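Hi W., the dtdp-4-keto-L-rhamnose complex you wanted:
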Amino acid sequence: METTTFPISGPLLLRPKRIEDSRGFFSETYNERLFREALGDVRFVQDNQSLSTQAGTIRGLHFQSPPAEQGKLVRVLRGAVFDVAVDIRRGSPTYGKFVSATLSAENWTQLWVPAGFAHGFCTLEPDSEVLYKVTSYYSRGHDLGLAWDDPELDIPWPVAPGRAVLSDKDHAHPMLRDLPAYFS
Ligand SMILES: Cc1cn([C@H]2C[C@H](O)[C@@H](COP(=O)(O)OP(=O)(O)O[C@H]3O[C@@H](C)C(=O)[C@@H](O)[C@H]3O)O2)c(=O)[nH]c1=O
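Structure:
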């Protein structure tokens, strides 16, 4: 498995081996031993899958607050997304900075988003399906967000702001400057 780090500590890009033959390919998309070598002592308790029918759909930026904080291992089954993780660890030297990567069914890349990061993505193709493993169960009371279009974050979303497809919830998240210190 290929592992790539970012200038921000925590997130990782992972690319499991794909074994191709005349039928197509085979791949261990999750192997606890190999992923624990890369990610440390993580335990996944829930798998989530979403389908976004339109290109330019933005979901995010989301996180769960402690004690329900989640690490997320994100990959794409169909289509492609521009995936983003924003550092919201208040004491971090990279607080408010983000990492991003294109994840696609084609490039077979997964993004590890540790707890302490707000996560979101923008679909690059119609009918993009995202599958991600999380380290804590969903908790509605801890499910929080950060404004995807906060100018302070300056994220180069691959869609014109007026054309992004969003949930009602994602129109209403606070800006970084108004975000309480959930993570130290
Ligand atoms: C996240 C989640 C949502 N739900 C419910 C709540 C709601 O009725 C419906 C849709 O939820 P949302 O609108 O929050 O779905 P969505 O906007 O896709 O939320 C997801 O976005 C990406 C970027 C993430 O990082 C995820 O952790 C998650 O927050 O599904 C669950 O039952 N379990 C879950 O784990």
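The chain has a mean pLDDT of 97.

W.
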